[in-house]
Amino acid sequence: MTSRGIRAVGEYEEYLGERLKNGLLNISGVTVYGAGYRGGTVLFNIGGISSERVGEMLDAEGICVRCGYHCCPLGHRLLGTGKGGAVRASFSALNTVRDADSLLRAVKNIAAEKHIIIHP
């Protein structure tokens, strides 16, 4: 990491986050939360599916995200994420464009199939 430089690492993480955010904004039924600088972190929900269930479905695809209120229920109240919080994807210097695109494809598939999912 030090050979790349801290600034370059931060810019790369932000690039991956922006790539994910922009892709999510083009998927019907997906809500992206927060405005302004977010670094490599993106908070989202797929309408009609709990964040916990989305996390389980992504885990089944080998994709690791965090779900819920992320130790900040008041922040989620302000963002309006609703009952159950949201899904958080976070990128680091070790992630790749392929990782971001794999997450996008998985979310697109989940959103497209949500009408057949039985909600717990």
Automatic annotation (TrEMBL):
Key words, A-Z: Pyridoxal phosphate
Record's protein name: Cysteine desulfurase family protein
Gene3D superfamilies: Aspartate Aminotransferase, domain 1 (3.90.1150.10)
Any coiled-coil regions, as ranges: none
Source species: Candidatus Colimorpha enterica
InterPro entries per the UniProt record, alphabetical: Aminotrans_V_dom, PyrdxlP-dep_Trfase, PyrdxlP-dep_Trfase_small
Domain Aminotransferase class V: from-to ranges: 4-103
Domain of life, source organism: Bacteria
Pfam families to which the protein is assigned, alphabetical: Aminotran_5
